[in-house]
Amino acid sequence: MIAYIKGKLVQILDEAVIVDVQGIGYEIFCANPFAFQDSFGKEVQIDTYHHVREDAHILYGFKKAAEKYLFTKLISVSGIGPKGALGILSSVDAAGFAAAIEREDEKFLTGFPGVGKKTARQMILDLKGKLTDLVVSQQDMPVDEPKDYDRPDNNTLLDEACEALRALGYSEKELRSIRPELQKEKSAGTDELIRKALSLLMKNR
């Protein structure tokens, strides 16, 4: 399998990018090819998924590792093929989709082209509990731990976590109901608070 392609980005199409690797142009289909616009004419390394069919070998590319991980999970669901998975990735970030799965938001999921109630329910059954790490993607976070004097206090981290949950569609009423429990998590970072919050929100439903 081809895990990534490294070469010069020479063309951006509506559905794909072309990367030149020692004189060979690889066509890589992407959810949003224009996300690579700032790398045009430069050397890039694109994470890829090599999809093999009887009549074709197709490369799908991703800007972030979290997107590739979500893609592989989506195509494991009955009724979701690579094109459908790309359609979902082009419409929502990985964290937003993961949150919708955790809260079993069928209305949100059926908003994607080609996704009916049956497929939405299948996605929830197959993926719930498997995507929580994407709510705050570890690949997009700095690896260095902040020094103690730089570390935000618990209220600041809690506010940041609540803001992220609001962006994912949770109401003020829902957040108020779990805030006292989250305040007990004295040493938790923002990502840990979000995961704890999602768990609490699901129990309250």
TrEMBL record:
**Entry's Pfam families?**
HHH_5, RuvA_C, RuvA_N
The compartments listed are: Cytoplasm
> What GO molecular function annotation could you give as one example from this UniProt entry?
DNA helicase activity
Q: Which residues form the Helix-hairpin-helix DNA-binding motif class domain?
A: 72-91, 107-126
Instruction: List every stretch annotated Domain III.
Output: 153-205
Q: Which SUPFAM superfamilies match?
A: DNA helicase RuvA subunit, C-terminal domain, Nucleic acid-binding proteins, RuvA domain 2-like
Q: Which domain of life is it from?
A: Bacteria
| Record-linked SMART domains | HhH1
Q: Indicate the quaternary assembly.
A: Homotetramer. Forms an RuvA(8)-RuvB(12)-Holliday junction (HJ) complex. HJ DNA is sandwiched between 2 RuvA tetramers; dsDNA enters through RuvA and exits via RuvB. An RuvB hexamer assembles on each DNA strand where it exits the tetramer. Each RuvB hexamer is contacted by two RuvA subunits (via domain III) on 2 adjacent RuvB subunits; this complex drives branch migration. In the full resolvosome a probable DNA-RuvA(4)-RuvB(12)-RuvC(2) complex forms which resolves the HJ.
Q: What family name appears in the similarity comment?
A: Belongs to the RuvA family.
Task: Summarize the protein's role.
Answer: The RuvA-RuvB-RuvC complex processes Holliday junction (HJ) DNA during genetic recombination and DNA repair, while the RuvA-RuvB complex plays an important role in the rescue of blocked DNA replication forks via replication fork reversal (RFR). RuvA specifically binds to HJ cruciform DNA, conferring on it an open structure. The RuvB hexamer acts as an ATP-dependent pump, pulling dsDNA into and through the RuvAB complex. HJ branch migration allows RuvC to scan DNA until it finds its consensus sequence, where it cleaves and resolves the cruciform DNA.
Protein's name according to its UniProt entry: Holliday junction branch migration complex subunit RuvA
